[in-house]
Amino acid sequence: MFDIRPVGYVIGLLVAILGLTMLAPLAVDLADGAGHWPAFAESAVITLLVGGLVALACQSGVRQGLSIQQTFLLTTGVWVALPLFGALPFILGASEASFVNAFFEAMSGMTTTGATVLTGLDDMPKGILLWRGILQWLGGIGIIVVAMVFLPELRVGGMQIFRAESFDTMGKILPRATQIASQIFGIYASVTVACVVTYYVLGMNGFDAIVHAFTTVSTGGMANYDASFGTFTGPHEYAASLFMILSALPFVRYVQVLNGNLNAPINDVQVRGFFYTLTFLVILTSFLLTQIFPHHWEQAFREALFNITSIISGTGYSSVDYMLWGPFLITIFFFIGLIGGCAGSTACSVKIFRYQILLASVRAQIRKIKTPHGVFTPKYGGIAISDDVLNSVMSFFVFFIVTLGVVAVALSFTGLDFVTSVSGSAAALANIGPGLGDIIGPSGNYSSLNEAAKWILIVAMLIGRLELLAVYALLMPAFWRG
Fold it and tell me: Average pLDDT, stretch 307-334?
């Protein structure tokens, strides 16, 4: 018989911890004197009580190991439960959002998608703005742990190729996850502090520096202003680009660097692939901008660097309305969002390593066509790619493309135009944030969409953040019989 208690215990604890984090925006609103703190007090009490009671009720079922079914359910359940309670301050607070809008905002925050349905951010209470940043920051560290501990062991989307780096945790997921998370947390917090200090030194006020550091390092992209990052220009864009790049790299490499292996990032084939791709795209876009607009080369380079980095990492900041850059660059932006950063980072989307594995497989097949009797094995980082990994990656691509099409069609049925449907589907599934077009493009947001479209996008954000197969497996009766 399936025992849900271990799953309920962990989810209950995490919900209670989420309740404690609500005390930070409560204190900010209280200090600001705007009178919005009671919403966070009520939300914190509800969240702490429910989370604590669930954890206590399920405590008797805690054991060392988790079954594969329990682990899949836990991975998905956390990303449903936390946004559910994270939505409370939006409902009870100054935004007075409807349930669907509040859940959309919280899901977008926890999945670090960065799509928003809130308007008037320039005048929004500081507590709400900080809460959006906290949700993204928690989601960023959360997805690193999931990508390093759970997904490799669950053999999802080819992530098992990083299983050795995840310290072989099957059967010991809870205690090992705690150990790994503590190492990563220290690095994640240090990078965040460095980002706060950098923003502050460059001229941001303390509050903006903290919130934007949260949403930069998490590659979430929820800014404090309706103009997104366009409120800040020049050095701020370079600083944000640097920290978005750092956050899009695998955090396990930072652990190795701290332990003395200084060449770990350089030796990682996906890190090199990420930098090659980013460099090519920035140079190409910079050149085209100088041809299209009377841009100085520095402005063209800065705008290209910032906006390309923002989209490829899935951060979703925008410093300019790149919808004005012409159809060719707009098309490039659409496909850039489907690339993503490195596995084991806060970045989202397909991830560089999957494209590298796909290309290695294609190369091997081409060589086999040329030399039918030869034996050609696709390799990744000098190591032969197993059929298990290759099949998992191919399955991921198939599911991703099919899901992208299904979500786009579903959105079109709600009355959205073609560009909004397709780009909205990609933006949610790849957790990018802004889409294309006048409605959800870099100068718009998701507030005007109907409720049906928002629910579809909520589901897409969840599925995309958890690498698709981790969610789909729960819907298969055969999985539960296994």
Answer: 92
